[in-house]
Request: fold
Amino acid sequence: MSERPIPTAPTVQVFDDVPALTEAACRFVIERAQEAIAAHPKFTLALTGGSTPRGLYQRLSEHPTLPWDRFELFFGDERAVPLDHPDSNAGMARDTLTRHPFVPPERVHRMRGELPVEEAAADYEATLRRLFPEAAASAGVPRFDLLLLGLGPDAHVASLFPGSSALHEQKAWVVSNWVDKLGVDRITLTYPVLNQAANTLFLVAGADKAWAVQEALQGQLSLDEAPVRGVRPLSGKVTFMIDRTAAAKLSGDLGQPRASGRFLG
Ligand code: 6PG
Reply:
């Protein structure tokens, strides 16, 4: 009986501080973009929300000569708020990157958080089906060239939170998700889409993330208890870029700052 393939172990890179992490992440995104654009007509990049990626988006905005017209920018999740709300992930990306004239607005595909959440989820799924016609036609799943993810202190990713209903969605690409602990609705990509990405880059900084990082890389909890553990692409590559404080609970030399390292399993 053929063994279920084992996902490729993540690469773990630990940095002394956030500026060093941000610099490396910027180089990583540019390299994946150049690879993707050399191989096919566009670079599909799913942005993450939260605060950690702000610096990365600002650094990317300092590269106006990148082939931005070949990028297609998406979002991994969104809050149930309009674009101009301070909590909007698309609003944060606009303020740091997509407002620049070299990013064609028609290349930015945000989740419309101003809509009722179920409508927003269906609207975004329709957007993905339009922009990934091969996946829609073959009952497949859209494959982002690069998916950016943050990590919450409770090990949530995107808006897949411990105990939330979206954790077990295996058909829809995008769902609305009630987050009990926050008392809010969210819109989020589901695991089938997250796990289809060709490359996944986690950006994680801060001592409050140390437990979640340890769970992600060396833990045994279920995805219900630690949703990051549900991110296990069978064919994509996963890279964790973490700062020293977020690596504090990792055992062995994995947690030591160095240019790059392999996750030892
Ligand atoms: C969101 C994000 C979420 C985020 C983590 C980490 O909408 O908030 O998608 O998953 O990445 O909560 O957020 P920080 O980078 O702010 O720690």
